[in-house]
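Following up on my earlier thread - several people asked me to post the actual chain instead of describing it. Fair enough. Here it is, all 110 residues.
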Amino acid sequence: MKFKKTEKSSLFDITFSNGILEIPQLKINDEIEILFRNLQAYEQCHLVHGDTFVNDYITFISCLVSATKDVEVLAQIENLKNMLSSDEAVSNLFIENVISVANLSTFFNF
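Reply from S.P.:
Thanks for posting it. Predicted structure:
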């Protein structure tokens, strides 16, 4: 599988065709965790139709950045812009976020 940066404006505009995964650049900075957690909370508490676009996106990205080498590769091809202290910090941010949401969903039966 190959990765390609797309210039599309929506983070959800992800395509896979002919072995190429096109994803818009995601900028990872100090505020992204707070933004994602707030969007997830809104999605879980206020959307009654079960739409989980934000949670699905975060889960998808966490699969792509499960190791620091993954973060490094995505940053080199500009699918990811790492503004944190290290590649490990990015990987940990997504892994911890997905685990905490999964635990909440199980606890509250979302």
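The first strand starts at residue 2 and ends at 6. That should answer part of your original question.
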